């Protein structure tokens, strides 16, 4: 596990209540029905601020990835970390690690991911990606 | 009723001040900024008392703000502001200064950017990692997830370009090698030893697909530019550099389905708009100074400006057009990959040097039209300037 620690503030408290339950919450527009990213304050489709929190399916696909070399997380030893930007099944993008990648050369756009959670001591639960197919 | 613009108030750059660059310690960013303004004013043949406008900005170390007026003992300024649009700021400051001069709001506007992130004994990487230190809230979550600083974000963008268009590491390498060739001819460049494509491939990974030689260096220092009217510039110490056209573009990525993150940047709209204002065509441009936080940034900007078709940036940069012997006079000082990392001031300063014809060994033979870009954020902010030694 190479995630760092995250703390809540007023804008993230509901989201982290969700990650504590094992849910990845996103914003659902009560006006037009579209989904926006968790950090959105207004609907990316219609601009409405009438947004509710709903659990995402947890399914995502790779948009792009990088393998970082070195100390990408402060105060941790040098490491190699696979990071991805992925499109959630609901449409918004999310950035995090992909854990457990054995063969990075096999990564490509569109590969299915699942959101899971890391729970470092003294931190909110951090959403990370895993490969949906375990064999890679 | 429209404002009564004065005639003959077209804007020009009359002064350029560049401090010592690189691992220069013991001075704050504010001190570098003050030094840069003093140098630029002297370069123009002006006095500090002539300055009646001041625009400031700084990098990750911050600290260059409104108090610079007091540091320089400037009185009765008619324009003063701190600006920030990351790597596009330098171009943006010159644009605001130009419009203030055109409107008669100010006559001599100093635009300054400085930064001092490097600490003695510390690595370049450490100096910028601080930007991603864990914080509460969404930024803290991104950082805890491992997405810290610019390297992984630009790497994700570059990888997407590679996957979509077939761009290769070797093509990125051509940019790194060519800019080092230019840097060898630039006495101010921090990295002047030639490199080969093999050296490029042997440089260590930073964030794949980026190796060390894909990434800009880090510098302490400051650069200032003085903007005044073309008429006034004509009687000053340096050859005037006229501002023929300019534009900005801030695409506003939605970061949701169908977003073109990594594939198209703000350059796609900013470039043509600046050229249209100048009344010139891309093919007439003699010298190109592009913002190069990474090799990839140069490649996508070349595509977006239209030097080649979208997606063909890779084959284009590998076709022999780059370097001092190539036909495209691009990043002639070595850019931020090899000369000095002053954000948007790096391409701007080299653009001014080339437009003036003061490039020494690296001077482009033809320099009537110089195109300068600035890029900031995650390809979020773009500025373009068209410079010329000739008034049109």
Strand % of chain B is: 15-25%
Indicate the percent of residues in helices of chain A: under 10%
* Radius of gyration of chain B, taken over Cα atoms and rounded to an integer in Å: 20 Å
Helical residues, percent of chain B: 25-40%
How far apart the termini of chain B lie comes to 27 Å
N- and C-termini, Cα separation of chain A: 18 Å
Which regions of chain B are unreliable across 5 or more consecutive residues at pLDDT < 50? none
Class inferred from helices and paired strands of chain A? mainly beta
Walk me through what this model shows.
The complex is a heterodimer of chains A (136) and B (392). Chain A has 1 helix and 8 strands, in the order αββββββββ. Chain A has 136 residues and is mainly β. Chain A has a 5-stranded mixed barrel with strand order 4-5-6-8-7. In chain A, strands 2-1-3 form a 3-stranded antiparallel beta sheet. In chain A, a hairpin with a 5-residue loop joins strand 1 (25-29) and strand 2. Chain A is globular and about 45 Å long. The model of chain A has no long low-confidence stretch (mean pLDDT 92). Chain B has 392 residues and is of the alpha/beta class. Chain B contains 14 helices and 12 strands. In chain B, the strands form 2 sheets. In chain B, strands 3-2-4-7-1-8-12-11-9-10 form a 10-stranded mixed beta sheet. Chain B has a two-stranded antiparallel sheet with strand order 5-6. The interface between A and B is large, with 47 and 40 residues.
Can you give me a brief rundown of this structure?
Chain A has 136 residues and is mostly beta strands.
């Amino acid at each position: 596990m190479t995630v760092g620690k995250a703390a809540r503030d007023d804008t993230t408290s509901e989201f982290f209540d969700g990650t504590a339950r094992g849910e990845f919450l996103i914003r659902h527009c009560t006006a037009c029905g579209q989904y926006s990213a968790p950090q959105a304050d207004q609907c990316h489709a219609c601009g409405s601020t009438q947004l509710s929190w709903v659990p995402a399916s947890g399914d995502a696909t790779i948009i792009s990835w990088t393998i970082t070399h070195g100390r990408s997380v402060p105060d941790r030893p040098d490491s190699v970390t696979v990071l991805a930007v992925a499109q959630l099944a609901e449409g918004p993008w999310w950035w995090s690690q992909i854990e457990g990648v054995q063969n990075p050369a096999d990564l490509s756009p569109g590969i299915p991911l699942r959101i899971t959670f890391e729970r470092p001591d003294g931190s909110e639960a951090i959403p990370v990606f895993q490969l949906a197919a375990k064999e890679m | 009723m429209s404002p009564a613009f004065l005639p003959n108030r077209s804007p020009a750059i009359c002064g350029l001040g560049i401090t010592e660059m690189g691992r220069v310690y013991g001075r704050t960013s504010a001190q570098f900024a003050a030094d840069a303004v003093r140098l630029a004013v002297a370069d123009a043949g002006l006095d500090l008392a002539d300055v009646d406008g001041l625009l400031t900005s700084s990098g990750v170390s911050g600290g260059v703000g409104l108090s610079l007026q007091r540091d320089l003992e400037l009185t009765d300024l008619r324009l003063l502001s701190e600006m920030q649009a990351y790597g596009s700021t330098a171009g943006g400051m010159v644009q605001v200064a130009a419009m203030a001069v055109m409107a008669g709001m100010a006559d001599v506007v100093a635009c300054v950017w400085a930064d001092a992130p490097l600490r003695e004994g510390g690595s370049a990487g450490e100096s910028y990692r601080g930007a991603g230190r864990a914080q509460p809230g969404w930024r803290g979550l991104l950082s805890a997830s491992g997405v810290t600083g610019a390297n992984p974000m630009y790497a994700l963008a570059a990888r997407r370009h590679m996957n979509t268009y077939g761009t290769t590491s070797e093509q990125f390498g051509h940019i790194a090698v060519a800019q080092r060739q230019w840097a060898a001819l630039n006495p101010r460049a921090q990295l002047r030893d030639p490199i080969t494509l093999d050296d490029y491939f042997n440089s260590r990974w930073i964030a794949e697909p980026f190796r060390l030689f894909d990434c800009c260096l880090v510098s302490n220092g400051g650069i200032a530019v003085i903007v005044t009217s073309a008429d006034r510039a004509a009687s000053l110490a340096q050859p005037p550099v006229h501002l023929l056209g300019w534009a900005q573009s801030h695409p506003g990525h939605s970061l949701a389905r169908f977003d073109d993150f990594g594939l198209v940047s703000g350059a796609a709209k900013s470039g043509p708009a600046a050229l249209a204002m100048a009344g010139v065509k891309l093919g007439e441009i003699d010298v190109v100074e592009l913002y190069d936080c990474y090799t990839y940034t140069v490649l996508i900007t070349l595509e977006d400006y239209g030097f080649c078709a979208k997606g063909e940036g890779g084959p284009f940069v590998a076709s022999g057009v780059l370097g001092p012997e190539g036909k495209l006079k691009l990043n002639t000082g070595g850019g931020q990959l090899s000369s000095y990392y002053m954000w948007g001031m790096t391409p701007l300063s080299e653009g001014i040097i080339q437009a003036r014809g003061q490039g020494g060994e690296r001077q482009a033979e033809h320099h009537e039209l110089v195109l300068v870009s600035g890029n900031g954020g995650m390809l979020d902010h773009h500025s373009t300037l068209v410079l010329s030694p000739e008034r049109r």
